[in-house]
Amino acid sequence: MSTEQSDGVPITLISGPLGAGKTTLVNRLLSDPGDRRIAVIVNDMGEINVDAELLADQGEEGIVDLSNGCICCRLQDDLVTEITRLADEREFDYLVVEASGISEPIPIARTLTVGTDETSLPERFALDTTVSVVDAYGFWKAFDPEESLPDAAPDPQRPLTEVMVDQIEFCDVLLLNKCDMVPDDELDAVEAAIRELQPRAEIRRTTYSEVDPGAVLGTGRFDFETARRRQGWKETLAGADSDDSGHEHAGGDDHHGHPAGLSAAEAHGVDSVVYRSAEPFHPDRFDAWLDDWDGDVVRAKGFVWVASRPDTVLGVSQAGPAVQAGPIGEWGDDDPSTRFVVIGRELDGVAAELDDCLARDGEEIPSADADPFPRDS
Ligand SMILES: Nc1nc2c(ncn2[C@@H]2O[C@H](COP(=O)(O)OP(=O)(O)OP(=O)(O)O)[C@@H](O)[C@H]2O)c(=O)[nH]1
């Protein structure tokens, strides 16, 4: 078996929301493989793997169908087993793994890097590139509370919007697909929002996932630790911490690497606001703020101080309508303070709304037993 890289057969992992264009991309790669002999593993949630059948219709060999489960959770061991079996049975020098639309990429990347408790990936493989395909037309709809999303998440506590945000935050290359369906100015807005979530990936605009195979195969871009750190909100918080741009609202300046003045994101109405406060929130009002989601907040995440838990760091993560908030540690020697980044549209009022959630002098505060945390959606 020949390899593109000295350290193993490279793997490209393709993730992305349902119907974004992942199978279309795999078909493209199979129809234009160049010198590569590509094997494909396709994961689908249903009992019938429609995607694998669509690929098989093309008469390709080396397509393995992993159905009726999700390779980020239930089928992790099967994924490794199938890769091992495929390598024993066939000659190929590139492996493409298409995850189901509801798969979270981080556990799959971990499986493809270090294996699972039960199985380990043969040393002759190496994860090379993680790709997320995102539907430009469906992007804002995913954040629109009026739209009903397909009820297909494996975990009802993890709405698909949240999975989509994970898929955007964790990738080396992002295809912003279905560009034929969206006017250019709207595309600029979607790309600006994605850039806030994902500052480093290469973003390519595509129609029918048309891309040079070299952009997604053999790029050598994947690195697990870097990928984990790539989440936009962390960079935004780090930037806000290192500048001195104010107590409540650090958005709108150059803290996230945009040139001073109007950033691309701001020009399209997408922004990130960093809220900081040395006063605690009233737990009930902050909880109500988290509940009162109007579709403009794409992502909110950070470390929060609530008055009901003076010693506890509350970790808060919101992706679309899904909210998780719970204790993640103690303030210890650090002065308690809230640092919270909000990414979305029309965020002008956010800092004032959050100020309104701060505990007021003399106000009654529930005990930790009676506050709404931890909460999961
Ligand atoms: N108009 C338009 N349609 C597209 C484009 N890319 C893909 N499609 C269509 O969108 C539908 C879904 O594409 P797939 O490639 O099956 O999407 P997927 O991400 O594999 O979908 P799941 O496996 O269900 O998650 C198909 O009917 C495609 O033909 C595009 O750029 N523009």
Automatic annotation (TrEMBL):
Catalyzed reaction equations: GTP + H2O = GDP + phosphate + H(+)
UniProt keyword Transport, yes or no: no
Protein's UniProt keywords contain Translocase: no
Compositionally biased intervals (Basic and acidic residues): 244-257
Keywords assigned by UniProt, alphabetized: Chaperone, Hydrolase, Nucleotide-binding
Region (Disordered): 238-262
Pfam families linked: cobW, CobW_C
Residues annotated as domain CobW C-terminal: 270-358
Gene3D superfamilies on file: CobW-like, C-terminal domain, P-loop containing nucleotide triphosphate hydrolases
Protein family membership: Belongs to the SIMIBI class G3E GTPase family. ZNG1 subfamily.
UniProt cross-references to PANTHER family, sorted A to Z: COBW DOMAIN-CONTAINING PROTEIN DDB_G0274527, ZINC-REGULATED GTPASE METALLOPROTEIN ACTIVATOR 1
Name of this chain's protein: GTP-binding protein
Source lineage: Archaea, Methanobacteriati, Methanobacteriota, Stenosarchaea group, Halobacteria
